[in-house]
Amino acid sequence: MIDERSLRLSTPPTPTGRRPRADAERNRSRVLAVARALFSEHGNQVQMADVARAAGVGVGTVYRHFPDRQSLVLAAAEQRFTEVLEFVRTECLSDADPQRALVGFLRRIGEAMFHDQGLSVALESVMGSTEPRGETRELYHTVAATLVERARAAGTIRPDSTVADLVLIVHGLIGVIRHDDGGDWHRYLDLALDGLRVR
Fold first, then answer.
1. Structural domain spans, the chain
2. pLDDT (tens digit, 9 = 90+) per residue, 76-111?
3. Does position 6 have pLDDT exceeding 80, yes or no?
4. What is the C-alpha separation between 7 and 149, in angstroms, rounded?
């Protein structure tokens, strides 16, 4: 079983080890929210000055919280990854139907990728990939493994199904969403999931 507390990514302390002041944290949250909206709409064209202007703060404030553009893009993407994990924690892991939980996990990823296409482009431009990294990547793997194991045990998916199969499905989702302006990614997912079902 997954310890739900392990799925909660807390706000990191400042370099001195202290939590940021409330006003500083509000500024950071505002800058991050604005940046994420801009990246989602305009993708890799967004610059630090654009974020400062839209957030109504000086560009120095943006750099104070995010030392460079790469760190801002990563923070925006991390927020998206964390939101998906929170959905999984509250909706999927608590679902008594293993197949519905597995489908819900993949659909939530598809929705996040579809609505944040510009952010995905910006993330790939600075990191070469749209996948989570580090602790977040490990949490996704743990969640996926748990959902696959539950569905296998319930006999709703093939007994040889693995997390690697889910990764392939997600990569396909990314391709459909990116190269066909979203395309009918719901249909693609239905077809991919049909390939996992027990015959």
1. 17-194
2. 999 999 999 999 999 999 999 999 999 999 999 999
3. no
4. 18
- Adjacent-strand bridge partners of 157: 197
**Up-side HSE of residue 99: CA atoms within 13 Å toward CB?**
11
Q: Give the percent of the chain with pLDDT over 90.
A: 78
Contact (CB, 8 A) for 141 and 165? no
One-letter amino acid of 44: N
DSSP 8-state symbol, 158: -
Q: What one-character DSSP code corresponds to residue 91?
A: I
* Sign of the C-alpha dihedral computed for residues 151, 156, 161 and 163 taken in this order: negative
Q: What is the pLDDT of residue 4?
A: 47
Q: Which CATH architecture has domain 17-194?
A: Orthogonal Bundle (1.10)
CA dihedral defined by 67, 129, 186, 149, rounded to 10 degrees?
-100
Contacts with 82 (C-beta within 8 Å, 6 or more apart), sequence order = 9, 136
